[in-house]
Amino acid sequence: MNIEQELYKRAVDFIKQRYPIDWGGAAVMYTEDGDFLISVAPEVHNEGASLCIETGAICEAHKLMKKVTHSICVVRDDENSPFKILTPCGICQERLFYWGDDVKVGVYSKEDKIIFKTLKEVQPYYWYEAYRDDE
């Protein structure tokens, strides 16, 4: 099993355990030194206080001073629904760019395939490119 399949499997297994019924979602990140970091979106009463599913694992990587190389976010609508991979939102892409544009992220596929793209492929016109020559 390759790393992308392992990330997907870990996300699905975690969702089944953490959310046995109804909606469920989890993000799994892989670090350069071989660790897996898993996070969920905190449940809040006010949607204005919500955070993306990936946020916890991103914060954990920073806390542990680990470089993220891969990230996947998986959700399902309920226990009878198929699992879907969600491409990171713009804010999470921004957070993941901290580790470089070669970070691989799971992206949505209509065919329910496990597909990973680098951040550079997902966002080829990333704003920071305007400043790379200044480095």
From TrEMBL:
> Is the keyword Hydrolase assigned to this protein?
yes
Q: What is its EC number?
A: 3.5.4.5
Q: Which domain of life is it from?
A: Bacteria
Q: Which InterPro entries match?
A: Cytidine_deaminase-like (IPR016193)
Keywords, alphabetical: Hydrolase
Q: Name one GO molecular function term.
A: cytidine deaminase activity
Protein's recorded name = Cytidine deaminase
Q: Which organism is it from?
A: Clostridium ganghwense
